[in-house]
User: Which sequence fits this backbone?
């Protein structure tokens, strides 16, 4: 019998995962140093989708720049609109009618649902549960239809603008929202039936991609990725904006900080979003959806046709744009991915001097090496899915 | 401890190295001497529990000698307060990296370096992050043109501010 020899003279292998890889959610490239199946080192290489959105925004008026915000995190356009709008409103101290504020809450939570639906679909698809993708996108269609009814666009809404909402809410808004509230809880149960106790799902996610609370804070993680590690930080509770202090809801927390905890957090967050929407639609105040401070907000068409003063305001706003005072403002909000905010530097002209996005996905991704090093290569896919990245926002 | 109290403590400790304290719409900015900013940030981290470095913003002012203003956006998960620490860097001044206090700073400082060309000392891996390595220039500097050919429409597009004189910062 021939003697068996073990070859100990092997080398570490370096491979590229992405940028053209279906499970990297876009054009993320990970340079992996592998010892067999084990990841020794993981280096993300980003920038393949860099379009210079911040530079573009500096060269547009405040109103035009709003359209750029939709394209940053294209799964949560209304949340981006909201963050940008709140910063401008803080800069010019613009009051917003109560109906608009509550409608913003409904729209923001619907957008969070939208973002989480895409996350649960693609995350499960990556791991091999293909049917989840179809279920999630079936429900997402309902949300996109509502956004289309509101703004005329399925994804690039630009519906939330400084001063309130761009148009009046559509006539079927309340019915459509109540319909979502009626159908969605059973849909979320359906997802949980498919995944939560599914042994394959548990094997792939439980104990995978663990990050401790300390590391998570030190790496600046926010959103469900941070709360999965048991840190209670939700901007809606910590620094309420848009009257969030008036709504009753829980902040779901994980304990171990693995992919499974992050999954549970997001699923529970969807239920809490529905709870907030329920309260907001029940208490939706009457009134107008746009402020009547016509120095900054377009006057209604009817008034423009009848009054000279309104005509002048409209002309100034359309031809010239709004001019906030000099100063700097930053308002963080809780987006589907984490703390999102726009740091706006105004120099007192019609264009922002500098707009800096506080990108939750960018910061969350920077901690990926903590979660995957020393683990199997198949776990990398689960981790990428569980931190919920959107490359449009990472690269901007 | 409220933010004004913290700022007062910092002023007592660092004196003239605190160059400017601003309050605007309820937020607080402290502009400090770049020589001491690392020490000050470490103090904010250890003594005042600013454990989350939310963001680092770089703003370009091409007419200044230290052309980049860097704004550290610090947040405390314990007291839920926010403070902005500003330094002026660029030119000859290379501030010290804070990535050994907050690991977040690693990528955020790389972005500031990539976009505005500020060098950080003590940074573990200061490379470009969004642009390709051989890219010429730094895109978010004001003298980096958005398009290669400027179109002349024959009318001045420069606007005067109704809020008084603007610093001649914006290059057009």
Assistant:
């Amino acid at each position: 019998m021939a003697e068996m020899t073990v070859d100990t003279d092997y080398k570490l292998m370096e491979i590229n995962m992405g940028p053209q890889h279906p499970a990297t959610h876009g054009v993320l490239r990970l340079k992996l140093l592998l010892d067999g199946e084990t990841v020794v080192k993981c280096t993300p290489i980003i920038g393949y989708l860099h379009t210079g959105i911040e530079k573009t925004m500096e060269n547009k008026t405040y109103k035009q720049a709003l359209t750029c915000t939709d394209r940053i995190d294209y799964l949560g356009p209304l949340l981006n609109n909201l963050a940008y709008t709140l910063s401008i409103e803080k800069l010019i101290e613009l009051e917003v009618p109560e109906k608009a504020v509550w409608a913003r809450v409904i729209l923001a939570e619907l957008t969070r649902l939208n973002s989480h639906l895409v996350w649960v679909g693609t995350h499960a698809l990556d791991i091999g549960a293909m049917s989840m993708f179809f279920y999630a996108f079936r429900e997402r269609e309902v949300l996109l239809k509502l956004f289309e009814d509101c703004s005329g666009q399925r994804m690039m809404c630009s519906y939330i603008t400084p001063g309130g909402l761009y148009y009046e809410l559509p006539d079927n808004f309340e019915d459509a929202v109540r319909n979502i509230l009626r159908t969605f809880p059973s849909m979320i149960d359906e997802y949980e039936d498919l995944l939560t106790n599914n042994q394959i799902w548990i094997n792939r996610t439980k104990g995978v991609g663990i990050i401790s609370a300390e590391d998570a804070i030190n790496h600046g993680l926010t959103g469900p990725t941070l709360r999965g590690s048991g840190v209670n930080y939700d901007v809606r509770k910590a620094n309420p904006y848009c009257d969030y202090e008036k709504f009753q809801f829980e902040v779901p927390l994980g304990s171990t900080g693995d992919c499974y905890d992050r999954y549970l957090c997001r699923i529970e967050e969807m239920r809490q979003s529905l709870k907030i929407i329920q309260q907001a639609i029940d208490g939706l105040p009457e009134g107008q959806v746009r402020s009547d401070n016509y120095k900054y907000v377009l006057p209604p068409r009817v008034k423009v046709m009848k009054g000279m003063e309104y005509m002048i305001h409209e002309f100034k706003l359309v031809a010239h744009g709004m001019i906030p005072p000099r100063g700097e403002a930053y308002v963080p909000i809780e987006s589907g991915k984490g703390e999102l905010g726009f740091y706006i530097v105004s120099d007192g002209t019609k264009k922002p001097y500098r707009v800096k996005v506080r990108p939750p996905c960018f910061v969350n991704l920077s901690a990926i090496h903590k979660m995957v090093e020393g683990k199997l290569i198949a776990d990398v896919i689960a981790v990428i899915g569980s931190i919920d990245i959107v490359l449009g926002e990472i690269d901007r | 401890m409220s933010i004004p109290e913290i700022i007062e403590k910092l002023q007592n400790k660092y004196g003239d190295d605190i160059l400017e304290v601003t309050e605007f719409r309820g937020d607080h900015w402290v502009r400090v001497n770049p020589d001491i900013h690392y020490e000050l940030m470490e103090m904010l981290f250890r003594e005042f529990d600013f454990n989350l470095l939310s963001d680092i913003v770089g703003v370009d002012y091409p007419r200044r000698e230290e052309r980049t203003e860097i704004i550290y956006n610090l947040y405390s998960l314990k007291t839920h307060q926010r403070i902005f620490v500003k330094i002026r860097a660029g030119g000859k001044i290379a501030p010290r990296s804070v990535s050994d206090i907050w690991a977040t700073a690693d990528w955020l400082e790389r972005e500031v370096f990539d976009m505005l060309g500020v060098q950080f000392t003590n940074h573990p891996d200061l490379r470009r992050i969004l642009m390709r390595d051989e890219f010429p220039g730094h895109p978010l500097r004001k003298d980096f043109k958005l398009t290669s050919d400027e179109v002349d429409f024959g009318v001045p597009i420069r606007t005067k501010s109704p809020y008084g004189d603007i610093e001649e910062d914006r290059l057009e």
